[in-house]
Specification:
With about 400 residues, the protein is mainly α. Helices cover about 70% and strands about 0% of the residues. The protein has one domain (about 25-380). The protein contains 21 helices and two strands.
């Protein structure tokens, strides 16, 4: 009996909807304290650091001092607070609630950012194709929610979802509203390792208005610590805390949670402290050849540069999400073949739970896969641009 492909295609959307429901249910199961987590695991651990930092600032203390940070709320397990003063407003906002409520508020904020990132991916597809089918909507939603990084952020109360949401919106609004784009870039500055690549792009592209607004926003968000501790002292304390980053087990180069080319090489006994310099080199190269790359896809490439050459963690792999829309756009109309297989192989490690990744050694594979995704996106975008220019 011959296989009826048309009949199989009719099941595509319902199947993707089922996968989305399973993804949401699985994410809730593993990100809310309960049977999905060991009773020895501390929920929303990183979110508690934000809360403690806000309390410390309000009490006139120094959140970059580990002893003060821990004593403020009596949590001896807290790690160093390593965020710049621009994170102060967000931290102080969380102190409007008691700790338990603040943790849930942060959990809901992260879910809202997941939704926002999904919507921006859908907008990207709609902008290129004029409309978006349910298949693309369900697939984008499932992929972003199912990322191991997404679940890790939700469980830890981390802030990478907020940062990537702001950065993606800043990119999409760069022509429509330079003021709003600058505000969003400034708001994302609390994660400098993620916001640096886009900032450098705007700098080399001479988007002075966006950068000026971003700088003003950065200092406005830093006003509380500046007024209480002084401008110089606030940033000196932050810099001093960064020098203690190696004291945090999860921030050591040897940690499986630290990713990027520097960490990758370190695990093979190779020291490469100048990896960060390559960020500017690669972004400059992208700018030089920008006319040969489809412009709207550049943000996804910038996030790959961040994940490869800057100091990032495994939960920062959520920065791959903006690239999902472009992989869909650039591959959907092509006959299934080697490129699709390579794409699936490159993406698979980012959907495997961290514990399994660490046991199998795939944490090293992930760093290589990020680079592979960047090369693939660059190749597909350049080919798309060449066809587009040929048709003009």
């Amino acid at each position: 009996m011959p296989l009826n492909l048309d009949k199989l295609k009719s099941f595509k959307v319902p199947l993707l909807l089922i996968l989305l429901i399973i993804s949401i249910a699985g994410t809730l199961f593993f990100t809310v304290p309960g049977p999905g987590r060991s009773e020895h695991e501390i929920p929303y651990k990183d979110g508690t650091v934000f809360y403690a930092a806000g309390k410390t600032w309000l009490q006139g203390g120094n959140p970059y001092n580990l002893t003060e940070l821990r004593n403020t709320i009596g949590r001896p397990y807290l790690n160093y607070f390593l965020y710049p003063p621009s994170a102060s407003l967000f931290c102080i906002f969380l102190t409007l609630f008691d700790l338990a409520t603040a943790q849930w508020v942060l959990y809901m904020i992260n879910w809202l950012m997941v939704l926002a990132i999904i919507m921006m991916n859908i907008y990207t597809i709609k902008k290129q194709e004029g409309s978006v089918g349910w298949d693309a909507t369900f697939l984008m939603s499932t992929a972003i929610i199912s990322l191991t990084a997404t679940r890790t952020i939700l469980w830890l109360g981390q802030s990478s979802l907020v940062a990537i949401g702001f950065l993606m919106a800043a990119w999409l609004l760069r022509y429509r509203s330079w003021a709003l784009s600058g505000i969003l870039l400034g708001m994302a500055s609390f994660k400098p390792q993620l916001s640096l690549a886009l900032t450098l792009w705007f700098l080399i592209n001479r988007n002075w208005k966006i950068l000026a607004i971003a700088i003003v926003t950065f200092f406005l968000l830093s006003l509380y610590p500046i007024f209480t501790n002084g401008l110089w002292e606030s940033f000196r304390e932050w810099y001093a805390a960064l020098a203690n980053a190696d004291a945090v087990v999860t921030s050591k180069m040897s940690s499986p949670g630290v990713v990027g080319i520097e960490s990758f090489l370190y695990k093979f006994g190779i020291l490469f402290p100048k990896a960060k310099i390559l960020t500017a080199i690669f972004i400059g190269t992208l700018w030089v050849f920008r006319k040969h790359i489809y412009e709207d896809s550049i943000f996804a490439l910038l996030m790959v540069v961040s994940l490869t050459f800057l100091f990032t963690h495994a939960y920062d792999y959520v920065c791959l999400a903006p690239g999902f829309a472009w992989l869909w756009l650039l591959l959907r109309n092509k006959k299934f073949g080697l490129t699709h297989v390579v794409t699936l192989l490159l993406l698979t490690p980012f959907f495997i739970p961290n514990r399994m990744v660490q046991l199998t050694g795939l944490n090293l594979c992930r760093s290589a896969c990020v680079l592979g995704i960047g090369v693939l996106l660059l190749f597909l975008s350049a080919r798309y641009q060449s066809v587009r220019l040929a048709l003009q």
